TrEMBL record, chains A, B:
Domain N-acetyltransferase residue range list: 144-291
Protein name: MarR family transcriptional regulator
Tree of life domain: Bacteria
Family matches, as PROSITE patterns: GNAT
A Pfam family hit: HTH_27
InterPro entries, sorted: Acyl_CoA_acyltransferase, Bact_Acetyltransf, GNAT_dom, HTH_MarR-typ, WH-like_DNA-bd_sf, WH_DNA-bd_sf
One Gene Ontology MF term: DNA-binding transcription factor activity
Keyword terms of this UniProt record: Acyltransferase, Transferase
Length: 291, 291
DNA sequence: CATAACACCTGACTTTAGTCAGATAATTTT
DNA sequence: AAAATTATCTGACTAAAGTCAGGTGTTATG
């Protein structure tokens, strides 16, 4: 009988292998070998640096060259030397190439759409997929400083507010709290950092500058699918590093009693509890850390 | 920004593609081309019919033949004509082949184990994987009549009891209920049917024969990862078909008020509510259906 | 019982993927 | 300014995968 964890894992593995295989096969339907199709798709997804594509697809430089020549002969791509370093070449899609790329995208998208559409609980399926993708891709998280008004940041914040509303006694309305001004979370006053996993923002934290001799940590959030991976701590480290670089010596934060994991993290990482320092209605705990 | 459902799906797809690719690559470490390794693994997993392997792996018959010859030359497999139809050949691992297969299995298992071990919530990860695997494999569910004492059946029943205990007011103890005798759920008195998805039992139902002029439907269960796919209904249909074949004309069942989806299903599929017909402490509703 | 259908095999290919040793030209280092 | 390093390309390979047209022996069918 095959019910132990490893058997379940491998059942999953078989299921996705055949799904992946089927997609590869459908890609061949456009009459181009898979290698060329993969290069075309890498270029279409914005990888313009030949070395980056080679690295991403794990190709030999000779093979890569030949695949590029093939795509060039089909008039799907154009290469030219890099302006900054003429040894390198950059590559971009032609109009014809963009059309071909769009056709490949449509194949992938249709597959995804069909599978989601026929599932009774697409949200649950997507949550499961996020969890698996974060688990498989955990070596590939990137920390990026972004504008708090960017899409990635807004996505994180929106999820964060939803979660607060769910967890706080009596819910949470962002309007009743002191919503930080975006300019306070952009250098040189502050910073806003997101963790990305292959294009999906799965966590964020804000460093909000004030004129009171300290900066505040705000909006620490990790997607449910990525919890327990130590990302919150790494985000906090990144925020502290940003603060040091901006010459900020003292950090403060406030938090609600419902956010127990966060409170435990603060206590473990050198924060000390202090008296209430604002009149925001939501927080129950107040912390300070000197850098 | 890439946050719509399709983008999330495709992020998942990329993550598992690179995982699958990495596993393929590790398979090459044993010095055998991937094609041969895949055939060897298919045989090791019990596929002894050449046509079945060819079909499963999508191989041309010529290519398949050559791969088999190669494995035969390595003394990993043995083929002989099928006793029933001498055109067909059946294939089996030799002792050396079993050792080699075990080595491949270890590669897969170690990979699975390592990934599960470093995850903070392996149970949540496995649940997510089950959900995804059921969604991807939904064309490949099989309904099998099994002995209620088999591993597959016992797995389903164990999960069923856990769920009842969670959902019933005051919990559920199997000992307090009239646990059906296994012989009553085996032909010719009754039947026990499981839904399998690629080796994993994800649902079950029992048809329990009695000496009172009717048979009872018992233990209808669907794994959380496979709900909403219409499997409960298909299981009930299968149970009814089994009853007809056994010459049973009347079916009864009892159920608890907490199992709302089941009750809705019974009402929708021709069952009529009747008076209590037993003194089991758990059920609140009683149904009958004439075939 | 002839013939069609079937399962598998063999030989003769082609295509794709991948490797490796230079060649070329640009950039960095000493 | 010479030497070393780097990024890409070309040519000459090999291995693997996949295709296709027969061929052999077996089984099903009219």
């Amino acid at each position: 009988m095959t019910l132990d964890p490893i058997a379940r894992f491998r059942r999953f593995s078989r299921a996705v292998t055949s799904e992946v295989g089927a997609l590869d096969h459908s890609f061949l339907g456009r009459g181009r070998p898979l290698g060329s199709a993969r290069v075309l798709n890498a270029i279409g997804h914005g990888r313009g640096d030949i070395a980056a594509i080679r690295d991403y697809l794990g190709l030999d430089s000779g093979l890569m060259s030949r695949l590029l020549r093939g795509l060039e002969e089909e008039h799907l791509i154009e290469t030219r030397p890099d302006a900054a370093d003429a040894r390198r070449r950059v590559v971009a899609l032609t109009g014809k190439g963009r059309a071909e790329f769009a056709a490949y995208e449509a194949l992938s998208n249709n597959r995804a759409e069909a599978l989601l559409a026929r599932h009774p609980r697409p949200e649950a399926l997507l949550d499961a997929m996020d969890l698996v993708a974060s688990a498989l891709g955990r070596d590939r998280f990137t920390f990026e400083t972004v504008d708090p008004r960017s899409d990635a940041a807004r996505h994180g914040l929106a999820r964060y507010y939803v979660e607060l509303d769910r967890r706080f006694d009596g819910g949470f309305e962002v309007g009743r709290s002191a919503d930080p001004d975006a300019m306070d979370m952009i250098a040189p006053r502050g910073s806003f950092i997101v963790v990305m996993s292959d294009g999906l923002p799965i966590g964020c934290v804000g460093l909000k500058g004030t004129d009171k001799g300290y900066a505040e940590i705000k909006r620490l959030w990790i997607a449910p699918s990525a919890r327990g991976l130590g990302l919150a701590r790494r985000l906090m480290d990144a925020a502290e590093a940003a603060a040091r670089q901006l010459g900020i010596a003292t950090l403060r934060l406030d938090t609600n009693k419902a956010l127990t994991e966060a409170i435990a993290l603060y206590r473990k990482t050198g924060w000390t509890e202090i008296d209430r320092f604002n009149d925001d209605p939501y927080p129950d705990f107040f912390f300070e850390k000197r850098l």
